[in-house]
From TrEMBL:
Signal peptide: none annotated. Residues 1-136 form the N-acetyltransferase domain. It comes from Viridibacillus soli. InterPro entries: Acyl_CoA_acyltransferase, GNAT_dom. Keywords: Acyltransferase, Transferase. It comes from the Bacteria. This is GNAT family N-acetyltransferase.
Length: 147
């Protein structure tokens, strides 16, 4: 995983962000990550030149909201999304991580141990879901126990 901090957006990052947000909002989202003190964007490199996944997060103490997560179509199904989430949990010693998503990504989050709650029809004709994972840190062994 690499932190993305360049003011110039790489083509591979632009493409990945376009999978997670509308194409019209890609540049705005990227600038938000570069200029914000509590939001960060990371890229996943799997031994290749190009970045094949990205995750953008907003950190508040030991809590995190996943703002964007995407994996290139040819790399999907290889566990990259889960690896990126675990990286974020470990990097920031999180106790809680959340994401808001549509129906298409619910199973992805459920398979990673997130509890899913419907937020109802947040936009006309579009149901949204809150995905939340509580991570309990044990003081004796430094191992996490997920609820």
């Amino acid at each position: 995983m690499i932190g993305i901090s360049s003011k110039i957006i790489q083509p591979s990052i632009r493409e990945l962000l376009s999978y997670a947000t509308s194409i019209e909002k890609v540049d705005q989202a990227y600038i938000m990550y570069i200029e914000s003190h509590n939001q960060s964007l990371f890229g996943y490199k799997n031994g290749k030149e190009d970045i094949s996944g990205c995750i953008g997060v907003e950190i508040k103490a030991n809590n995190c909201e996943i703002r964007h997560i995407a994996v290139s179509p040819e790399e999907r199904g290889k566990g990259i999304g889960g690896k990126m989430i675990e990286f974020i949990i470990d990097k920031y010693s999180l106790t809680n991580i959340t994401a808001e998503t549509d129906k298409d990504a619910v199973e992805f989050y459920r398979n990673l141990g997130f509890k899913i709650t419907s937020l109802g029809e947040k936009y006309p004709g579009i149901e949204r879901f809150l995905c939340e994972r509580i991570i309990e840190i044990t003081h004796l062994s430094n191992q996490r126990i997920d609820d």
